Amino acid sequence: MTGNGTGRDPAAGERPPLTRRDRRRNRIIAVTALVLVWCLLWGSFSWANVLGGLVLALAVLAAFPLPPVTFAGRVHPIGLLRFAVRFLADLVVSSVQVARLAFRAGEPPRSAILAVAPRIRSDLNLTLTGVALSLIPGSLVIEVDRRAGVLYIHALGLRDAEDVERFRRSVLDLEARIIGAIGSREERRVIAAARGSPPPPLPPTPPGAGKDPTA
Amino acid sequence: MSLEPILDVVVAVCLIGGALLCLSAGVALVRFPDLMSRMHAATKPQTLGLLLVLLGCALRLRTREDVTTLVLIALFQLATAPVAAHMVGRAGYRSRLVRRDLLVTDELAADAERIGRENGEGGPAR
Fold first, then answer.
1. Considering its fold, how many domains does chain B have in total?
2. Chain B contact for A14, CB < 8 A?
3. Residue B125 lies in a domain
4. pLDDT for A127 beyond 70
5. Best CA proximity match to A151, nearest among B103, B108, B12, B57
6. Looking at the domain assignment, is residue B123 inside a domain?
7. B43 CB near a chain A CB, below 8 Å?
8. Considering only Cβ atoms within 10 Å of each terminal Cβ, which end of chain B, N or C, has fewer?
9. Is some CB atom of chain B closer than 8 A to the CB atom of A142?
10. Are B52 and B21 in contact (CB under 8 A)?
11. Full domain range(s) for residue B11
12. Interface pTM, i.e. ipTM
């Protein structure tokens, strides 16, 4: 989430380089998405639009290359559906909650800033978990420690330490659903093994730069 | 019985529901105590509110060109709102615009300066 220029990014050199196949797959996904947006803008999927979009997409990707994303998993339709349904439900419930807080009389709502370490520390998982959290009302990612793999979340309407722990667990549940939707076999195994156990302790302050966060 | 009246009711529910959520976001902007809580109000109920309004419009318009544009608006809203909220929230925390007396806990306080440095910030955070 905290996108900085690659030049100053301390973690940029720590991820293993992508293989040629991964790079090609990432490029195909990016081109497909850009062509889709182009066709949606024009409102029809005619050959002219697809071909024009293709040329434009290649030009855009040549001018603004995307940062490398490692994606080892595959898409699980049932997991994806489960994630989507639960996400929409969360969106509605939390929207109503925040709206109620807005109209409620009395003292202003209290909130908390908590650190949560997702169990899978890949860039993709950190980003997706952070984005999903930020879309759901009442939670907002305000800082990311990419090297340690920790999200710092501002949560609205928490009253005491018990609420904080409940919220922490809900973040890990959200992560489990994301991994269930797009995780690799290894990632799903880690999540399944951790089910029911308490949240992992935060990783210790990493000493100096140059450590591999995935090790 | 035709489909049209039912659709009209669904459209009305979507539009009014969306409008009410946007109203609640406006009220929250005025009433919430600090920048962070206002960010929640500005980015969130309004997300669902906008989606509902778009859904209502799509059901009403039902022409392909309009619907594809509405889909795009929804996609870009979902893609950009978290980034904007994150950047403002992050800047707000660093500028000390958080009401600390209203925080149950602040687990970022101890690490804020180190992370700020690692994420490529110049001087110290405070």
1. 1
2. no
3. no
4. yes
5. B108
6. no
7. yes
8. N
9. yes
10. yes
11. 4-118
12. 0.80
Q: Does B27 touch chain A (CB under 8 A)?
A: yes
Q: What is the mean pLDDT of chain A?
A: 80
**Closest approach of B110 to chain A, Cα-based (Å):** 11
Chunked into runs of 10 residues, chain B (126 residues) has average pLDDT values of: 85 92 87 83 78 91 87 88 86 82 78 71 48
Q: Is residue B42 in a domain? A: yes
pLDDT of residue A22: 81
Q: How far is the C-alpha of B116 from the C-alpha of B110, rounded, in Å? A: 12
Average pLDDT in the A116-126 region? Answer: 86
Residue B124 in any domain: the answer is: no
Instruction: Please name the amino acid found at residue B95.
Output: S
Joined tokens for residue B121 = 């910030």
CB pairs under 8 A between A and B: 178
Tokens describing residue B113: 């300066």
Using CA atoms, how far apart are residues A35 and A17, in angstroms rounded to an integer?
A: 27
Cβ distance of B21 and A95 shorter than 8 Å: yes
Chain B residues whose CB is inside 8 A of the A91 CB are 47-48
CA B63 – CA A177 distance, rounded (Å): 35
Return the structure tokens found at A186.
Answer: 């290894």
In terms of Cα–Cα distance, which of A183, A71, A27, A151 is closest to B107?
A151
